[in-house]
Design a protein that fits this description.
This protein is α+β, with helices and mostly antiparallel strands. It folds into three domains: about 140 residues, PAS domain (Beta-Lactamase), CATH 3.30.450; about 80 residues, Helix Hairpins; about 160 residues, Histidine kinase-like ATPase, C-terminal domain (Heat Shock Protein 90). The protein is built from 13 helices and 14 strands. The strands form four sheets. It has a five-stranded antiparallel beta sheet, sandwiched between helices. A five-stranded mixed beta sheet has the order 7-9-10-12-11. Strands 6-8 form a two-stranded antiparallel sheet. Helix 8 crosses helix 10 and helix 10 packs antiparallel against helix 13. The N terminus and C terminus are likely disordered.
Length: about 375
């Protein structure tokens, strides 16, 4: 039926002149139908009762990455070996409507589709005359769901670790250790430290959620960079002294950049704090400035450096090069992600260069004259 229908459309005899108006209507409707199919993001495939393709659209052709110049007239088994696709169309030919079939492709990149198949034509005791399948691309939805699951898993793990320590030491105190003043002070110090870690994690989660959701406003203006870096170094003096790290403000006086002062301080604090944690004891973390097409603020440490395979994912939430060392040194695993999103919000970016054994350099790139409208970067 379907093969005959599409063939007849191509070989239909010319109409008599008196049917011009009707012909124009049919031509317009046909062109509109074909344009609709060609413009659909969803892949559409129609098979006859012999499982031979009688209609398809460009999106379907991309989906199957077929070596055939056309999908039409090919058997479904020649196009794919995926049993889920074949079974769905087979059920459609039996007169059953099928939905929620997940189909994955593994070409240059993994794609995930939700396949829905419906029977076409008169459904009788011998089944339907054909079946129509629509492939809905749910790749992005699947990726977002994976990110959500990973996020919840990481949050649960990061909260469970300090919470377990808190509960353990509270139970120890309750069992009699509170009678020993020295042990009591030591345990309470550990409890406070882990509670602060949980508090910091929750604060960072809320901060990152607000940034990603576009719920913060930037109040950008000229910022005296040397003074701001001085403030950042002063706020991190205790952490630096604990590891004998020297903080160096190499920004010349009089240098200014265009940014939200509070958010730029937040970015630099995260980067300098990160440098302190991963520098060698008795080492140094330096902050400097370079001018070019964009303003560049560089934070350099003299730590062990970061293996090249980790650089691309370094700004992902909770991503750690050395998980054991990161947890030992503290931190929420969200600092670099926050820096990345704040830099993007400024119309800039953050990059990293690293060499094993020679430390790492994080660079904040800021536009010299970003467009500002109503307190938000446009």
């Amino acid at each position: 039926m379907f093969r005959r229908f599409f063939t007849n459309r191509e070989k239909a005899p010319a109409r008599e002149p008196q049917d011009t108006d009707n012909t124009d209507q049919i031509f317009t409707a046909s062109s509109l139908f074909e344009a609709t199919l060609a413009g659909m993001r969803e892949g559409l495939l129609v098979v006859d009762k012999d499982m031979r393709v009688v209609a398809s659209n460009p999106a379907a052709h991309k989906l199957f990455s077929s070596s055939f110049s056309k999908l039409n007239s090919q058997r479904l088994t020649e196009l794919t070996r995926n049993p889920a696709i074949y079974s769905a169309f087979l059920d459609g030919l039996k007169g059953n409507e099928v939905s929620g079939v997940k189909v994955e492709t593994h070409g240059t990149e993994r794609q995930v589709f939700d396949l829905r198949v419906v029977p076409i034509g008169n459904v009788n005791g011998h089944g339907a005359e054909g079946a129509l399948g629509v492939f809905f691309d749910i790749t992005r939805t699947e990726r977002l769901e994976l990110v959500r699951q990973e996020f919840l898993s990481n949050v649960s793990h990061e909260l469970r670790t300090p919470l377990t320590a808190i509960v353990a030491f509270v139970e120890t105190l309750e069992s009699g250790a509170k009678e020993d003043p020295e042990s009591c002070r030591r345990f309470l110090s550990i409890i406070r430290k882990n509670a602060s870690r949980m508090h910091g994690l929750i604060d960072d989660i809320l901060e990152l959620t607000a940034i990603e959701g576009g719920n913060i406003q930037l109040r950008a203006a000229r910022v005296e960079l040397h003074e701001l870096v001085d403030d950042v170094c002063a706020s991190l003096t205790t952490q630096a002294q604990a590891r004998n790290i020297t903080l160096r403000n190499n920004v010349a006086e009089g240098v200014s950049v265009y940014a939200d002062s509070r958010r730029l301080e937040q970015m630099l604090t995260n980067l300098v704090d990160n440098g302190i944690k991963f520098s060698h004891e008795n080492g140094a973390v330096s902050i400097s400035y370079e001018s070019g097409e964009r303003d560049r603020i560089l934070v350099k440490d003299d730590g062990d450096g970061i293996p090249a395979q980790h650089l691309e994912r370094l700004f992902e939430r909770f991503y750690r090069v050395d998980r054991a060392r990161s947890r030992e040194l503290g931190g929420t695993g969200l600092g670099l992600a926050i820096v990345k999103h704040l830099a993007l919000l400024h119309g800039g970016e953050v990059t990293v260069e690293s060499e094993l054994g020679k430390g790492s350099t994080f660079t904040i790139h800021l536009p010299k004259n970003p467009a500002i409208s109503a307190g938000k970067l446009s």
